[in-house]
Amino acid sequence: MSWERRGGGGGGGGGGGGGGKEEEEEEEEEEVEEEEEEEEEEEEEKEEIEEEWKEEVEVEEEEEEEEKEKEEEKEEEEKEEKEKEWKEKVEEKEEEKEEEEKEEKEKEWKEKVEEEEKEEEEEEEKK
Predict the structure, then answer these.
(1) Segment Disordered: which positions (predicted)?
(2) Residue 81: which of 26, 4, 93, 89 has the closest Cα?
(3) What backbone phi and psi angles, to 5 degrees, belong to 30?
(4) Which helix (H) or strand (E) holds 49?
């Protein structure tokens, strides 16, 4: 009989060993949870970094676009200024030409008037 009791007692010891397994499983679960949390934090950090990077890229692209637009505006203004100067020069040349033509016509008219007066004088002298 004593042997049987001891054998029963041994079975109880086995149950205690089972309790040790539960602690190991809990520890493993905690480690897995910690690893998952770390992975989530790393993923969040990665996403934050990517978001910051995207924002920086957008800002840089906007700045480049603004700079490009300013450069284009500047070029357009320079082009308009050159066209304006060119038109002024053309107008000035045209005015000079008109003035020269006017002076030439006046000169021709004076010569014609003088010629006619001269002819009239000659005719009067003949009479």
Answers:
(1) 1-127
(2) 89
(3) -65, -45
(4) helix 2-126
pLDDT band at 15 (very low <50, low <70, confident <90, very high): very low
Produce one character per residue of 49-80: b if its CB has 16 or more CB atoms within 10 Å, e if not.
eeeeeeeeeeeeeeeeeeeeeeeeeeeeeeee
What torsion, rounded to 10 degrees, do the Cα atoms 117, 120, 122, 124 define? -140
Q: How many CB atoms lie within 10 A of CB 27?
A: 10
Q: What are phi and psi of 40, to 5 degrees?
A: -60, -45
What end-to-end distance do the CA atoms of the chain give, in Å?
188
Question: Which of 18-22, 39-43, 107-111, 112-116 is the least confident region?
Answer: 18-22
